[in-house]
Amino acid sequence: MSRAYTIRISESIREHVRVEDGVQTRLEVLAVLSEEEMAELIAEELVDLGFERDGDTLTRTDEDGVEISVDAKSATVTVRVSAEGDVDETIERSARVYEEVLKDSRKRLRDSARAELKGKVDEEREKLTEELANALEAKLRDLRRELDGAGTRATAEALKVRAGQLGEIQEIHENDETGELTIKVKV
């Protein structure tokens, strides 16, 4: 006759979860002047928006932790965001088993608990990833307007410089509401 045993196991996990998300896009800027001149105009506009300049690269980290990097020469914008969370879980399991399967049952019980703990870590990672994606999407809407405005202003400045190269500027009319720019040049 086999003896019945009650086995108990306890498995714990303490893991720090970090997830990152990012997107890359381009500024819409007309190539009115040379690449270097356009890069300089873009850089000036971005510095006015709080970006720090290091050569052709401009960076800013917003209060919400979103990191924005712009390569002024290629007009490439990279936006990154990250989040962290901790998983601290303990699972206790017990089962009543017979002596013949005691060893295998303990292993199966432990494996089951470990798999459940791994699932909790995966759930936290998934939750953080979804939160990041939503935050990034919302941030991109606001950032797009801000960066498009900088690109528009840089293009307008480039057009003024180019008009000055073509001849004597007679008058300039700008309509900020419609984005219209009229430059009369005497050639």
What are the SSEs and their pairings?
Layout: E1 4-26, H1 35-48, E2 52-54, E3 57-61, E4 67-71, E5 76-98, H2 102-166, E6 168-175, E7 180-186
Antiparallel strand pairs: 1-5, 2-3, 3-4, 4-5, 6-7
Helix pairs in contact: 1-2
SSE arrangement, N to C? EHEEEEHEE
N- and C-termini, Cα separation = 110 Å
**Percent of residues in beta strands?**
35-45%
DSSP helix count? 2
List low-pLDDT spans: none
Question: Strands across the major sheet, in which order?
Answer: 1-5-4-3-2
Helix percent reads: 40-55%
Instruction: Describe the sheet with the most strands.
Output: 5 strands, antiparallel
**Rg, alpha carbons:** 30 Å
How many structural domains can be distinguished in the coordinates?
1
What structural class do helix, strand and pairing data support? alpha+beta
Question: What is the average of the pLDDT values?
Answer: 88
Could you tell me the number of beta strands?
7
Overall shape: rod-shaped
